[in-house]
Design a protein that fits this description.
Length: about 190
């Protein structure tokens, strides 16, 4: 179930055939991605990525998570995910990462906008949350650009390289998203 973002960007469900390509992308960008993502150091070999993909597929079948590859001009450049999907309370969390070479082109802003729209329109979510390290300015630029509201700081929320770091918790309600979508800059982005 691919999700088209625009003529150059597409979101595609993760499958076992992607494991080697995905591992190579992470391995090449290990230092860059590892600044913000604790799991990068756990992917030491392609088999670690295969285990992640297998678990990801199981969670997608269970309906709790949805990991999507971000393809730019047909090439994998990152991932965007819907996590902790709660159909009873109509809420989920979005996570994302992008290779260093693909940064600064609006790829992730547009991809996150598409997956947030998918969560609200197709999955009937009422609330979407994005949580990121307080020093992760690239991620904060995305949530601000998309109109998310800073709801608070989660103190010592993640252990990254042996240090506890705080996270900012950003939220968006379906009613807010629907109002934002009519703005010209949001329409062009999604």
């Amino acid at each position: 179930m691919p999700i088209p973002v625009n003529k150059d960007i597409q979101l595609e469900a993760l499958c076992s055939a992607h494991a080697e390509q995905l591992f190579a992308l992470v391995d090449d960008d290990r230092l860059f991605l590892g600044q913000w993502l604790s799991w990068v150091s756990q992917w030491e070999a392609v088999d670690d990525c295969r285990a992640f993909v297998k678990n990801s597929i199981r969670k997608m079948v269970d309906g709790t998570d949805m990991d999507l590859l971000v393809l730019h001009q047909g090439k994998i450049v990152g991932m965007v995910s819907l996590n902790l999907i709660d159909a009873n309370h109509h809420r989920c969390q979005v996570g994302y990462w992008l290779s260093q070479q693909a940064n600064g082109k609006g790829i992730m802003s547009q991809s996150v906008a598409a997956v947030v729209d998918y969560a609200f329109e197709k999955l009937q979510m009422n609330r979407v949350v994005i949580c990121s390290g307080v020093d992760n300015s690239p991620s904060q630029k995305i949530v601000k650009r998309l109109g998310f509201t800073l709801e608070g700081v989660l103190r010592q929320h993640e252990c990254l390289h042996g240090q506890y770091i705080d996270h900012q918790n950003w939220g968006m309600l379906k009613s807010e998203w629907q109002k934002l979508k009519v703005k010209p800059e949001m329409s062009e982005m999604a």
